[in-house]
Write a structure and sequence with these properties.
The structure is a homodimer. In chain A, about 45% of the residues lie in helices and about 20% in strands. With about 425 residues, chain A is α/β, with parallel strands linked by helices. In chain A, helix 3 packs antiparallel against helix 7 and helix 6 packs parallel to helix 7.
Chain lengths: ~425, ~425
């Protein structure tokens, strides 16, 4: 057996044992552990920043861009924000232990479902080191053990953060293996995690499409993911056009680099002439490049013709594709063909049209008369978000603490046997 | 592109289009389609049996065992039972369209989750041809399109059944592609189904471990499955021993060939001397072979020594492994090490011990003072069962209609934009 496989199996076994303890931990025990983590992050600030400095130096030497170095840097403000994040999780309701769907069967059996942690969750990410702490806090609060695998450029930072968390959790009386980080940047470790189904119950990949595709293709463990967010706003013939303009502007411009920003604006042909010129002007003034269908280009001089690829591209910047459609059917078909099942909105005053849109658009979030930018765990009132799922199974859309749990059936009898 | 891939893609596209229609079908439309299926099965009885006869003849020629030929045969009684099954599904409540978790956010956004079909479900099975009809009825009622792939030995029967269903559904006004069956026995078709993630949302394999392992290893689509049912009954020191004996007897003997039958009996050492000899006698009288730990063998002359493999074997026949354990901790550890997360029961009068067992045993069903044989969709009141899941994600334990649905977030605003 390779050393890496041995390492991952050992971590898996330790995680499994930790999960067994966490499954019966009280909310008080979990909150005490989280508070210990918050204090430890504060106390180890200097050590963490020294390790982060190693990653930054290596990054500079490898020629990482300024933006990437910025994302990597654990400034005082970022550490403050991580600590505040952990304390916010303390304040969230514990989803574990509640029962639902209770029924008494004719033979007297009492049957219910009980909400329980999933077990051991593997998180594979490329992004900023704060994911280490955010994900660790959410998995702990939901009673799960976590095995983290971060990006190689942040390895020293991530190890320092994970060690700080793990020691703090242990000092509070819960298992050190509640939070583990794979201590090597060897890519073989990811492959071993993805087949460690004896030890890991769920894989959540967070990062670019290439990473996620690799995870999906190689994992024998269930994966919850989203590839991208190609979000649409459809301006219906019966839309309040002033509202539509404000929403479309917000959905594209307020923060274009995130997955719930609008990438394509669909406009009903009945209102295109009235709506598009002023909307286009407002977007252009904000620096938005418009790529339109041929009817859009006719109505809007500033628009370039869109290519076929543009309709299925997550621009993540100030670029917008615009298409004029002949009614709801064409809008729904366009979203089905090019969308990514993330978040799509309709602007309309007609409640029947809205109902049709809600029923027919097969996306994790469907919105009426508001901005796709609200597609977010905190905005939905979930308190915090471990990620967004565009899958159909288990969790769809923003995933909070409850989505990090599953259920078991609990059946209580008085000696019943089956006839 | 291979012909098989083209075939699967075409079926996938047709299934996707059917699913779009089914997602907005009313309960009345779906029930009308199911009633049409019931009538068509009756009207096509002769044709179906003629096709079944071809499979039986081919099976005889290939030397299939009598038991296998019996499983394959579509007798009048079996067709009656399929028809009755379809009509039962008509009577079940439609899970689609309900909303839950509704909340109004401080900014006035109304947010809820709406229960919706999953979409296109692929079912890969080896077993009896009645699965074709049972699975088709349940997926239709829950608003899903289904792509069925049955065993090669039943291909003519399955094609006749699927064609009958598909034509009946079409005659009722819903899409013919609501129910599709892969019309080839080429194994490549399974491989193509497992990567058709653009068209298929969920794969449910039903069959032996080899089939399920192949599906898990090759699927890029989420899979819900169970490998086996190694169910335990733990007789606690504070058990009502008469009740324990009746339950253990029922769990092993009433129907040993099914996944919720007991495979291992765990007995607390404090009551082993009192309990085991009479229990062992009763089981032996019923023809049960006992394979015990060394302490069991000491107390029970009729018991053979169990091998290490016996603890993790799903016997599915009148064989039982028996272990004497020193208390709850050892029982839980044994179940964790050798169990399959299917169904495990404790027999005890001590409610605190029962609570500990419920919390610590990580199985899809955990039972107190009743027989594992109740782990079943109909017994739980789900009305019907598409399968049992020992996975943690989405559905655990018996899966009924609701487990064939997912949700979407529905967000309704009055023009809100994000600050």
């Amino acid at each position: 057996m390779s050393e890496i496989r041995q390492l991952v199996e050992r971590m898996g076994r330790d995680g499994r044992a930790a999960a067994a303890r966490l499954a019966v931990a009280t909310s008080e025990e979990k909150n005490r552990a989280l508070e210990a983590v918050a204090v430890a992050l504060e106390n180890n600030r200097g050590k963490i920043q020294a390790e982060n400095e190693k990653d930054l130096a290596a990054g500079r030497q490898r020629g990482l861009s300024g933006a990437m170095l910025d994302r990597l840097a654990l400034t005082d403000a970022r550490i403050d924000s991580m600590i505040a994040g952990v304390r916010e999780v303390v304040g969230l309701a514990d989803p574990v232990g509640g029962t639902f769907d209770e029924r008494v069967r004719p033979n007297g059996l009492n049957i219910c479902r009980m909400r329980v942690p999933i077990g051991v969750i593997g998180i594979i990410y490329e992004s900023r080191p704060n994911v280490t702490v955010d994900a660790g806090a959410l998995t702990l609060k939901s009673g799960n053990a976590v095995i983290l695998r971060g990006g190689s450029e942040a390895i020293n930072s991530n190890l320092a953060l994970a060690r700080t968390m793990s020691e703090a959790v242990a000092s509070s009386g819960l298992p050190a293996a509640t939070v583990q980080l794979v201590p090597t940047t060897d890519r073989e470790a990811v492959g071993e995690m993805l087949v460690a189904e004896k030890y890991i119950d769920l894989i959540i990949p967070r990062g670019g499409k290439t990473l996620i595709r690799r995870v999906v293709e190689n994992s024998t463990i269930p994966v919850i993911k989203h590839y991208d967010g190609i979000c649409h706003v459809y301006v219906d013939a019966e839309a309040d056009l002033a509202m539509a303009a404000d929403i479309a502007f917000n959905a594209k411009v307020q923060r274009p680099g995130v997955c719930n920003a609008m990438e394509t604006l669909l406009i009903d042909s009945a209102v295109a002439e009235e709506f598009l010129p002023s909307m286009g002007g407002r977007l252009s003034d904000a620096g938005v490049e418009i790529r339109g269908c041929h009817r859009t280009v006719e109505l809007l001089e500033s628009a370039k013709p869109a290519t076929e690829d543009d309709w299925s591209t997550e621009f993540l910047e100030l670029i917008l594709s615009v298409k004029i459609v002949d009614g709801l059917d064409e809008a729904v078909r366009h979203i089905e063909q090019y969308g990514s099942h993330h978040t799509d909105a309709i602007i309309t005053r007609n409640t029947e049209t809205a109902k049709q849109f809600i029923g027919r658009v097969d996306s994790s979030s469907v919105m009426v008369n508001t901005s796709t930018r609200f597609s977010d765990g905190a905005q939905y009132g979930l308190g915090a978000e471990i990620g967004i799922s565009t899958d159909k199974l288990h969790a769809r859309g923003p995933m909070g603490l409850e989505e990090l749990t599953t259920y078991k059936w609990v059946v209580t009898g008085q000696g019943q046997v089956r006839e």
